[in-house]
């Protein structure tokens, strides 16, 4: 499995990074990382957009779903039928946001490995270590078996070194911005499942602040090249979300209002 992963994903992406580094004037590895990240994000644009749409739709239907769960909490069989009916009528699915992400996951994992391990060089010669050199194709392998890789971005940020607090903080700030964009304004509490809705909203608010902190911690520990990838990827996602929300707000769907759900506590049967 590891060999298959390397052949299909890791090596093409690693060679793409080194090729971009090779052809960019000035041979700036940071710019190569930015260009490779943007290329992958463009290729994955529509699967990512589909995940954003599905996630937003699930957020907006959450109050109604909580009301259904509350109403039929003592009848699991009927709850299942009502949930299926609800998903069908509102054209949403609890798995719709997961599938696009699962499609992207192997590529993102390979990119992670490229930016984490791809810049490992011999500290005395600057040459790629043999383990990484063996992943290069043809003429790139011939060139960089005796040509050092310079890991500097813009001449002063070493992409191979960790503990870059500035990049880590930027990554955390962008993560916070992205999370805030996905938050739905909390509606007035009018559903039977309002307490559950309160708990879900509270968890969402906590995650908005928790994830940026985690991003800063990991961004500080990882090599700067991986943190730069994180920054560019998150910034691209923010632009993508802005595009989706702006297009969505300029073309409102008059039929998007969700059907009301009775809040009575009577036995449905």
Describe this entry's structure for a reader.
With 269 residues, the chain is mainly α. It has one domain (2-250). Helix content is 68%, strand content 1%. It has 10 helices and 2 strands. Strands 1-2 form a two-stranded antiparallel sheet. It is elongated and about 70 Å long. 25% of the residues are buried. Residues 185-194 and 254-269 have low confidence and may be disordered.
Number of continuous helical runs? 10
Report how far apart the termini are: 52 Å
Principal-axes shape call: elongated
Helix content: 55-70%
Offer a few descriptive terms.
single chain; 269 residues; mainly alpha; two-stranded antiparallel ribbon; 10 helices; 2 strands; 68% helix; 1% strand; elongated; disordered C terminus
Brief overview, please?
The chain is mostly helical. The chain has ten helices and two strands; from the N terminus they run H-H-H-H-H-H-H-E-E-H-H-H. It has a two-stranded antiparallel ribbon.
Per-chain topology:
Elements: H1 2-23, H2 29-43, H3 45-71, H4 76-90, H5 98-117, H6 130-133, H7 138-144, E1 152-153, E2 157-158, H8 165-181, H9 194-221, H10 224-250
Antiparallel strand pairs: 1-2
